[in-house]
Amino acid sequence: MSIQAEKTSSSSGREPAGVLNQDAVIRLERIHKTYHMGDIEVHALRGVSLEINRGEFVAIMGPSGSGKSTMMNIIGCLDHPTKGQYFLENSDVSQVDKAGLADIRNQSIGFVFQSFNLVPRTSALENVELPLVYAGVPAAERTRRAGAALAEVGLAGRERNMPNQLSGGQQQRVALARALVNNPSLILADEPTGALDTRTSVEVMEIFQRLNRDRSLTIILVTHEPDIAQYADRIIQFRDGRIRRDSPVENRKDATQVLTQLPAETEDDEEEVL
Predict the structure, then answer these.
(1) Rounded to whole angstroms, how far apart are CA atoms 221 and 233?
(2) What's the pLDDT tens digit per position in 52-70?
(3) 140-187, pLDDT tens digit by residue?
């Protein structure tokens, strides 16, 4: 699946009733998710319908238990809905088996998590290569693509560093490079700035905005932080398993501009690298 397309001019992700939106990377139709805990049914999602267009940068917010994590698991092909249909690039993936979902995740979706999820005793380059190993890409091509992905997130020259030789911000950049290396249709970022300080968080958001702008990469960001959500161009708020608000961001923050207003980083501020 390819992400190469022009960014839509509409941020709503919605089309008039009865009109199929061909530019929708994600289309959810009346999605329900119910978990059974003994005799108790937990309704995590209650008939959610949603469209996200190619090239949108969307922030998903909501309190714990609102359904946003369940929604991300379904969008990321980590779980099936109990009821309803999920179309990823106009292909219905609602009933695809586990092996098929694993293929979709590897080929079409890049994941970034708060905890980085890097392999500890493996270099930055080897961490980024992992999705390509699973995809069966030859070694020389893996090295080339992983090196290019690290350079794109500002880590050229750090290819041989182990995770414990990198700052938290650099580790998150490695995780982002790993998410990019297979040229996915979609990046799912779950609290990617949750473990980072203010300046490093803005630096990560600058990378997301640049990828969204320059590559028309579709990005979905889950965050509890309202100031981080302001770097997206659309915010979807969940509560009680339903979408309670879906609106464009007014006065969207520009991370490049924000960085110029933050105090300059000094050597004393930088984390020590072994």
Answers:
(1) 11
(2) 999 999 999 999 999 999 9
(3) 999 999 999 999 999 999 999 999 999 999 999 999 999 999 999 899
Distance between CA 207 and CA 219 in Å, rounded?
A: 11
User: Whose structure tokens read 């009109």?
Assistant: 19
Taken in order of first residue, the domains within the chain and their CATH numbers are: 24-260 (3.40.50.300)
- 176 closest CA partner among 160, 159, 142, 153: 153
Tell me the sheet residues that pair with 189.
112, 221
Give the number of other CB atoms < 10 A from CB of residue 95.
10
The pLDDT value given to residue 4: 35
Average pLDDT, the chain: 89
Distance from CA of residue 31 to its chain's centroid?
A: 20
Angle 124-134/139-152 helices, nearest 10 degrees? Answer: 130
Residue 48 in 3-state DSSP?
A: strand
List C-alpha distances in Å: 161 to 144, 146, 151, 166.
Answer: 17, 14, 14, 7
